[in-house]
UniProtKB/TrEMBL annotation:
It holds the Pfam family adh_short_C2. Coiled coil: none annotated. GO terms for biological process: bile acid metabolic process. This is 3-alpha-hydroxysteroid dehydrogenase. InterPro entries: NAD(P)-bd_dom_sf (IPR036291), SDR_fam (IPR002347). The keyword Oxidoreductase applies. SUPFAM superfamilies: NAD(P)-binding Rossmann-fold domains. Belongs to the short-chain dehydrogenases/reductases (SDR) family. Keywords: Oxidoreductase. PANTHER family: DEHYDROGENASES, SHORT CHAIN, ESTRADIOL 17-BETA-DEHYDROGENASE 8-RELATED.
Length: 244
């Protein structure tokens, strides 16, 4: 129960869904966690529930000044950062003909630019810590085609992960990407999509969608010293979808 003992972690998009699951798992395993999100109400409530080892900070992940403030507050509260989980992201299900330039730039900023900013800003803090682990949440659509905008940015996260891993290896900083398939988060299993998700699950080799905790277990592994020789790699959690 102490696989992250002594580690300081930042998890973005952490007020609900997979992000909240990651936060709970990290706290259980002994980490001190800064959780960030735009949803202040849910973010503060989760941090209050989890106690003194959790700190919520409101953050726009596409804003460089917000990133600088988050790193500074994390160091003040807990010390240099050992782990960054770039979890924040949005999805969009429009065709290329329907997607406006404004919509496209928004998804690029949130899903792609935020990952660049997070890595760039956290590296000096990890250097103070003597190394670290960056876990970038991509998608199975970072490996195979999906919706325009979403697919593009998730492929970009995969590429940035590899480039950063090569650059950061000599700092003792590992960088890996996680590629979830369909996960049973509130966004996915809400009433108007529940039937469609159940139908889609029949086409998944394991015949079910994943629970958020299953992704959290992979993120925990990569954040921990157990993954000390893994960097620049993709870790796929899709029930076999991309193996077909």
């Amino acid at each position: 129960m102490n696989r992250l003992a002594g580690k300081v972690a930042i998890i973005t998009g952490a007020a609900q869904g997979m992000g909240a699951s990651h936060v709970r798992k990290f706290i259980e395993e002994g980490a001190k966690v800064v959780l960030t999100d735009l949803n202040e109400e849910k973010g503060h409530a989760l941090a209050e529930e989890l106690g003194a080892d959790a700190l919520f900070i409101k953050q726009d992940v596409a804003n460089a000044e917000d990133w600088a403030a988050v790193i500074a507050e994390a160091e003040t509260a807990f010390g240099p950062v050992d782990v960054l989980v770039n979890n924040a992201g949005i999805t969009m299900a429009k065709s290329i003909l329907e997607t406006t330039e404004e919509e496209y730039r928004r998804i690029v900023n949130i899903n792609q630019v935020s990952v660049f900013l997070g890595m760039k800003t956290v590296i000096p803090s990890m250097q103070k810590a003597g190394g670290g682990s960056i876990v970038n949440i991509s998608s199975m659509n970072g490996l195979v085609a999906g919706a325009i905008g979403y697919t593009d940015t998730k492929f970009a996260v995969r590429g940035m992960t590899k480039a950063a891993a090569m650059e950061c290896a000599h700092y003792g900083i590992r960088v890996n990407s996680v590629h979830p398939g369909v996960i049973a988060t509130p966004m996915v299993i809400q009433e108007d999509t529940k039937a469609a998700v159940e139908e889609f699950s029949k086409h998944i080799p394991l015949k079910r969608v994943a629970q958020p905790e299953e992704v959290s277990n992979m993120v925990l592994f990569l954040a921990s010293d157990e993954a000390s020789y893994s960097t620049g790699a993709e870790f796929v959690i899709d029930g076999g979808m991309t193996a077909q």
